[in-house]
Amino acid sequence: MVRPATVVTPAYWDEACKHLAKRDRVMRKLIPQFGEARLQCRGDAFTTLARSIVGQQISVRAAQSVWERFITLAGGRATRLQPAAVLGLELPAMREAGLSARKVEYLRDLATHFSDGTVHVRQWQQMDDEAIIEELVAVRGIGRWTAEMFLIFHLMRPNVLPLDDVGLLRGISLNYFSGEPVSRAEAREVGDAWAPYRSVATWYLWRSLDPVPVEY
User: Fold this and answer.
1) Of 113, 177, 176, nearest to 141 (Cα)?
2) Alpha helices in 31-128 (DSSP H)
3) What is the pLDDT of residues 157-171, one digit of tens each?
4) What per-residue confidence (pLDDT) applies to 75?
5) Average pLDDT per 10 consecutive residues for the chain, totaling 216 residues
6) 152 three-class SS
7) In CATH, which superfamily holds the domain spanning 45-153?
8) CA–CA separation, 79 vs 47, rounded Å?
9) DSSP-based three-state secondary structure for 92
């Protein structure tokens, strides 16, 4: 039986909504549409990152299927995977679970970074966003976008603006530019007005495209 994940929501959310509604006409209209919905954090750091690697470049359904086989192989729970368990797996067995050779390499590299302390998980709460991104992108298979999603969804950092995110750019295009394409520079200018709660505004723009909450 899989235990339900502990769900954590940001303490700053209500204050952020008030701030954004006061400063931004789009947010003033958008925020009330989603009631009491909040950003949510589930699982632990290693599991969140491992799952993001498993899901790269495949459909959500395919990713879920591979993840379930992989987590069973590793003897973990859907909400918690241990680095040591991943390092103890045989490569052919990981391939048979549906993982590509490259993703096997990425997962083993991630597990190594966590097991040898190359990533400073216990210090992350005291580190700034860019320092954490720098640590994470040193892991094979993790780019800046994945690191920014981790900052938003796992560490719940309030002021992340993921300019490489297609959904954010589309949300800005539809809500601020009447559907016209927007450049990164234009998106950054819009996002500057949301500080220090750019993550919250980004989350609401994602919701404007898809009412189902985004989770990682």
Assistant:
1) 113
2) 45-54, 60-73, 83-87, 91-96, 101-115
3) 999 999 999 999 999
4) 87
5) 63 97 97 92 87 85 90 81 94 95 97 94 94 96 93 95 93 97 96 98 93 66
6) helix
7) Hypothetical protein; domain 2 (1.10.340.30)
8) 7
9) helix
Cα–Cα distance between 15 and 11 in angstroms, integer?
Answer: 9
Q: Which two tokens stand for residue 64?
A: 């879920």
Site of tokens 């919250």: 200
How many contiguous H segments (helices) and E segments (strands) does the chain have?
12, 0
Is 191 exposed, middle or buried (CB count within 10 Å of its CB: 0-12, 13-18, 19+)?
Answer: buried
User: What six digits make up the tokens of 200?
Assistant: 């919250």
Q: In the prediction, which pLDDT does 4 show?
A: 45
For residue 111, count CB atoms less than 10 angstroms from its CB and return exposed for 0-12, middle for 13-18, buried for 19 or more: buried
> Of the candidates 4, 3, 12, 1, which has an alpha carbon nearest to the alpha carbon of residue 155?
12
Question: In the CATH hierarchy, which fold is given to the domain comprising 13-39+160-209?
Answer: Endonuclease Iii, domain 2 (1.10.1670)
Q: For the chain, what are the domain ranges? A: 13-39+160-209, 45-153
* pTM listed for this prediction: 0.86
- pLDDT at residue number 60: 72
